[in-house]
Input
Amino acid sequence: MTKYISVGKILNFHGIKGEARVGFSKNQENFICSLESVFVKSKNNSYDELFIESIRIHKNFAIIKFEGIDTVNDILELKSALLFVDEETIRENLEEDEFLIDELVGMDVFDTEGKKLGFVVGVSNNGANDLLSVKVNSKNICLIPFVKAIVPEVRLKEKMIIINNLEGLLE
Output
């Protein structure tokens, strides 16, 4: 069964020719512009494919023209719809040391000596970098910057993350 991952949301129409103004995650302009099609979830929970006729970036939004959607009324029917791609498309575009959030959540966190410190309960972004939310053994949740200097190793197969436990990091 194909797994779909959300990559954007139709926020509104743009102009009168059926173009959509689409919001997407920061720093994903190249990925969004590389797409040839996306999927929208229909009312009966199936995924319908929309083919992209043209796409451009305008003021931090993607302006997308879909094939067969030619009027404001056509695109308004899709307003607020999430846009999805299949997981394989995402994986093909991941760079080295990039991961899907759902792969990281639940992973155990260890220090460089092998001591278990806790596990990942979420991932967020503070504008500068991603942050791992780690529930530590004291039951507190600590935010750990997801940067190479602090998180030198992620072992997906073993479901473990190795961190340099700097003084004060997990307090």
About this structure: Residues 87-93 form the longest helix (7 residues).
